[in-house]
From TrEMBL:
<keyword id="KW-0288">FMN</keyword>
<keyword id="KW-0547">Nucleotide-binding</keyword>
<feature type="binding site">
    <location>
        <position position="71"/>
    </location>
    <ligand>
        <name>FMN</name>
    </ligand>
</feature>
<feature type="binding site">
    <location>
        <begin position="212"/>
        <end position="214"/>
    </location>
    <ligand>
        <name>FMN</name>
    </ligand>
</feature>
<dbReference type="InterPro" id="IPR018517">
    <property type="entry name" value="tRNA_hU_synthase_CS"/>
</dbReference>
<feature type="binding site">
    <location>
        <begin position="18"/>
        <end position="20"/>
    </location>
    <ligand>
        <name>FMN</name>
    </ligand>
</feature>
<comment type="similarity">
    <text>Belongs to the Dus family. DusA subfamily.</text>
</comment>
<comment type="similarity">
    <text>Belongs to the dus family.</text>
</comment>
<dbReference type="GO" id="GO:0010181">
    <property type="term" value="F:FMN binding"/>
</dbReference>
<dbReference type="Pfam" id="PF01207">
    <property type="entry name" value="Dus"/>
</dbReference>
<feature type="site" description="Interacts with tRNA; defines subfamily-specific binding signature">
    <location>
        <position position="300"/>
    </location>
</feature>
<feature type="binding site">
    <location>
        <position position="140"/>
    </location>
    <ligand>
        <name>FMN</name>
    </ligand>
</feature>
<feature type="domain" description="DUS-like FMN-binding">
    <location>
        <begin position="16"/>
        <end position="307"/>
    </location>
</feature>
<keyword id="KW-0521">NADP</keyword>
<feature type="site" description="Interacts with tRNA; defines subfamily-specific binding signature">
    <location>
        <position position="184"/>
    </location>
</feature>
<keyword id="KW-0820">tRNA-binding</keyword>
<dbReference type="InterPro" id="IPR001269">
    <property type="entry name" value="DUS_fam"/>
</dbReference>
């Protein structure tokens, strides 16, 4: 995909939400084995860190992850513009502003959901970023915070950022309570108000409006797509990743990249092998595949083996092959023992 195609030539009808400590580069590589077309997001990265920190560590990714969007946290227009230029230079397909995270740490930096109270400032940030880059600049927000009226708050933010040129608005259909609830509670306690997002789409029929929050799977996603332009899944996609294998045939009318869970795992193994050679710990990669066999016989043993053994110093791919044996008691690819397949991967 060429930079700039998102929202213009390619509509990201499905996206995996940015999730702190979950949607890192290892997770995204694995998710790409399940869908070629899902839009994948980074974890939120502070704009100041991008400007002043280790950019390769913060923004590095594999070419196979496209289409990929980088989510930034910040509230200083000039700093966000500078960070957006760096993100664009890294080759990302989109840069997104976080206006939805409710954590105390984020609030102390004056970004995240607290910016729902400052729509004009968010619009200034969008305008500065649009002037700095040619890739899409988007916003992910809540429907409001604390005692705000969502009908007023969401319209005010949308009016401001879309007028400033935001290419899309992804809306988590819950309020955020900035005091009294933890970030975890903020994902569940405030009621979902999908109809509020639908009304926003009616208000802006020509703008890309995507929906997020509590969406359980592809059946729900397809229902939402009757009312909005895109659907973003978070925990549902992460905890049951194989559900993403339906994304391409159902939402994009193309074939899926992996026909079986085993094929998806085999496609991920060369990446894990290369990362192990670079010194990456096995657990940093296997934590993202714990849910691959969700609901299947042996899934608990698979998770237990990876959880217990992958954290050990020097753990290698033999742990993954042993865990796979817990699921099926079968050979890795139907013809060769796991040990033989492991040796082939190591030699590749």
């Amino acid at each position: 995909m060429k930079q700039g195609q998102l929202y213009r030539d390619f509509s990201p009808r499905f996206a995996v939400a940015p999730m702190m400590e979950w949607t890192d580069r290892h997770c995204r590589v694995f998710h790409r084995q399940l869908s070629r077309h899902a839009l994948l997001y980074t974890e939120m990265v502070a704009a100041a860190a991008v400007v002043h920190g280790d950019r390769q560590r913060l923004l590095g990714y594999s070419e196979g992850e496209h289409p990929i969007a980088c989510q930034l946290g910040g509230s200083d227009p000039a700093e966000l513009a500078q960070a957006a230029r760096i993100v664009a230079d890294f080759g990302y397909d989109e840069v997104n502003i976080n206006v939805g995270c409710p954590s105390d740490r984020v609030q102390s930096g004056r970004f995240g959901a607290c910016l729902m109270r400052e729509p004009n400032l968010v619009a200034e940030c969008v305008s500065a970023m649009k002037a700095a880059v040619s890739i899409p600049v988007t916003v992910k927000c809540r429907i409001g915070v604390d005692d705000q009226d969502p009908e007023v708050a969401l319209n005010a933010l949308a009016d401001a950022v879309l007028a400033a040129g935001s290419d899309a608005l992804w809306v988590h259909a819950r309020k955020a309570w900035l005091k009294g609830l933890s970030p975890k509670e903020n994902r569940d306690v405030p009621p979902l108000e999908y109809e509020r997002v639908y009304r926003l789409k009616e208000r802006y029929p020509g703008a890309f409006i995507g929906i997020n929050g509590g969406i359980a799977g592809l059946d729900d996603a397809e229902a939402h797509l009757s009312n909005v332009d895109g659907v973003m899944l978070g925990r549902a996609a992460y905890h049951d990743p194989w559900s993403m294998a339906e994304v391409d045939p159902r939402l994009f009318e193309t074939t899926q990249p992996s026909a079986t869970r085993r094929e998806a795992l085999e496609a991920y193994i060369p990446y894990m092998a290369a990362e192990l050679q670079r010194g990456t710990r096995l657990t940093n990669m296997t934590k993202h595949i714990l849910g691959l066999f969700h609901g299947m016989p042996g899934a608990r043993a698979w998770r237990r083996r990876l959880t217990v053994e992958a954290v050990r110093e020097g753990a290698g791919l033999d742990i993954v092959f042993a865990a796979l044996g817990e699921v099926s008691g079968d050979l890795l690819d139907g013809t060769r023992p796991a040990r033989a397949r492991q040796e082939e991967v190591a030699a590749a």
